[in-house]
Amino acid sequence: MCFGWWSLRKARKLVLVSGVFFYLCAAATPAYSWGFWGHRYINYNAVFLLPPSMFGFYKQHIGYLTEHAADADMRRYAIKEEAPRHYIDLDQYHKNDSSRIPVQWQDAVNRFSVDSLNAHGIVPWWIMVMHQRLKKAFAEKDMEQVLKLSADIGHYIADAHVPLHASSNHNGQKTDQLGIHAFWESRLPELFAEKQYDLLLGRADYLKEPLPFIWERVYESGAAADTVLGMEKDLSRMFADHERMSFEYRNNRLVRQYSEKYAARYHKQLNGMVERRMRASIYAIASFWYTAWVEAGQPDLPFNTPSN
Length: 308
Ligand SMILES: [Zn+2]
Known about the structure:
Blueprint: H1 8-28, H2 35-46, H3 52-60, H4 62-67, H5 71-75, H6 90-93, H7 105-112, H8 114-120, H9 123-139, H10 143-160, H11 180-196, H12 210-236, H13 241-244, E1 245-250, E2 253-258, H14 260-269, H15 273-295
Antiparallel strand pairs: 1-2
Zinc ion binds near residues 32, 72, 86 and 159.
């Protein structure tokens, strides 16, 4: 694992704090999103796109925003309503109807019902719920909530950028590609993000229409899902099984995973896709933070609020 940006000591401490629960869950279930490392890396980098009036506060609490970037995934094990907030199976809606899903929640409910929306995922609408909560926290100057909600909305926005979070074949289970979810969104970023990605993105923008904005990102994800799956399928036919997979120690556990050689080949074939989605995630998160703050009336942000 690459932890250069984050000291090894801190990473070890985090591993200890996360404890047995995390390992049991991680071992028993597939990764659900960018992966713990990826989510932290994305939230961390989003801070640097903020304007000066926000940067001091967010930079002071960058440790909190980073460490809590994957809390939303942990809640999936405890709260049954949590899971659909992380994805939307676009292909399930387009089976019988090629028109787009209604942008607004109420219009979508009228057309599909709450049950079927929850069955296929609600990530774009849930991001707007979080956006409203973040705006309210800014307006009330509840800095503890601002930090908590900033970390969480960062998570959901990053999830919305992952192609397999917009497909019902989210872990390749329909095409005999089990494991591809974590391969794309965890293994590839962990291997290549720090060494190769350019994450200097300028600055956040005010989003006049946050909901249509996030819908566009979701449709981009959905459009990329076939490429993610198809390319890996084709590539897998060119590699023997022992070349595709290898054993490596991760957090003192010997695990079987996609080999570095295979990952490098797949990553190259994807032609910058993971980097583009990571860059888009970072930009979107910073822009949502910034937009919520502007909509709340641009309150002064204290530099000395203790973080949890
Ligand atoms: Zn997630």
